[in-house]
Amino acid sequence: MQPVAPESIPHVRVAIVGTGFGGLGTAAQLRQKGIEDFVLFERADEVGGVWRENRYPGAACDVESRLYEFSFAPNPDWSHRFGRQPEIWAYLRRCADDFGIRDRIRFHHNVDRAAWDEAEQRWAITTSQGPYTADVLVAAPGSLIEPRLPDLPGLDAFDGPAFHSSRWPDDLDLAGRRVAVIGTGASAIQIVPEIQKTAERVTVYQRTPPWLIPRLDRPLGPRTKAALRRFPLLGRLVRGALYLHHEVLGLAFRHPRVARGAEALARFHLRRQVKDGALRERLTPKYLLGCKRIILSDDYYPALQEANVELVGGGAREIRPHGVVGNDGTEHPADVLVLCTGFHVTEPPFARWITGRDGHTLSDVWKPSMKAHVGTTVYGFPNLFVLQGPNTGLGHSSVVLIAEAQVEHILNALKYMDAHGISAIEPRAEAQAQFVDEVDERMQNTVWIAGGCDSWYLDATGRNSTLWPRSTGAFRRRVSPFRAEDYHLYRPSLAPNRSPAEVHA
Ligand code: NAP
């Protein structure tokens, strides 16, 4: 690539990476506040983040759509209580249009590097289409986007389509084919009932059974949609009721005794749907409900009992060109291999391309455990905001609520910077450490730590660096405000060749 003269490098106030709920939500709110100087970088040719990527059969949201939508963009047209992937993706595309964001999106721009330039007090961003600079960087790449492939011998030698659940081929016809599904997390549980209808045979490799509770989905008919359109207050009331319902559910995570109570519902669901005692035993988890993500499904257990489906316990041991070997050494033939093995969450790949004040990457400083102030800003990384960063995930409610609270933090920070002539903010190491301590302390007695399982919530140190351990209301109260006293605040120095001057809140 030809070197670009510094003066011809496009500069923006805010650069946003990613166009899922986080990126689009940030852009919509920036515009709403009259901040127009921003761009979004998107590596693909369309918006949508995980809802663009995950197109597997049966893909749907496992939080009710009335709660899993922007608070400022209610959609009266969800087809079901739990929206399906195509309509969630369409909703995000519509938001990009309705909020006038589309022309700010730089599609096919993969961000290769973003480095903080201390002298210039700005981010130097290298994209696949050329360089940019920005005062502020908002990283919104999503936390469940980079497939985690299993480390199984022979994987590369499989003689047929083999792909991760989030890379489902558009034109795959499973009629007459034998499909091996590895994993029994949220993705597999949605995929199996759908593909069972067309595939000749489906073999499900379960390493650890998940807890399932009823989903109780239902279609939303024309009368409901008309009422929601005519009386927007109705939608807000439903949303409020769902919000409360989820917060009550959240208690189960924080109080393992409540989780034991909730297990009764899951056991009842299993007993009602699986009459075969031996199969039921194999499907009963040995850890506390909530320790791994709770799965909502009404059709997974019935699908497993169909004549063309087989559950193999103990997971997979080896992949061969025409089959998968289970842990007991038996090979089951397969023509198609579906890897529902989750995502890299605790070592997010985007952290590798962000370099902070001292030349370290975010990935360096997040080893062995991701930490951020209010889950959003990171010591050593001025003017960086990470959406769905460390300890911002939820086991019980909608992550859109979390993203909106983080966006409020960003807007409040920008407002403060404008009002006080601040060019850069960076969380104080003590403030970040205090926030992390608060989180860790709250985490101690939760089901994620004390529930007796291993999960993607925990990092290599055994710390839960992914989830927020309190209510979403508590998150909003803690995260939305910009507390200047928690930050180093810098003003550009007026003298040439002088470092920016720190000011005090
Ligand atoms: P996941 O929950 O991480 O599940 C991965 C599955 O693969 C687990 O059953 C795991 O077993 C198994 N596995 C991993 N490596 C294996 C190996 N080498 N051999 C055998 N089994 C292996 O991944 P996911 O299902 O893609 O879901 C990830 C997250 O995405 C969910 O928790 C949820 O937050 C989100 N999601 C949401 C929706 C929705 O809203 N509808 C849908 C899908 C996903 P172990 O349990 O033994 O590790």
> What's the alpha carbon Rg, rounded to whole Å?
24 Å
* Structural class by sheet pairing and helices: alpha/beta
User: First CA to last CA: what distance?
Assistant: 43 Å
The shape is: globular
How many DSSP helices? 14
How much helix is in the residues?
25-40%
Strand runs, count: 21
Description:
The protein has 505 residues and is α/β, with parallel strands linked by helices. 31% of the residues lie in helices and 18% in strands. It is built from 14 helices and 21 strands. The longest helix is centred in the middle third of the chain and has 23 residues, at 232-254. It is globular. Bound molecules: NADP nicotinamide-adenine-dinucleotide phosphate. The site of NADP nicotinamide-adenine-dinucleotide phosphate (NAP) has 26 residues, from helix 4.
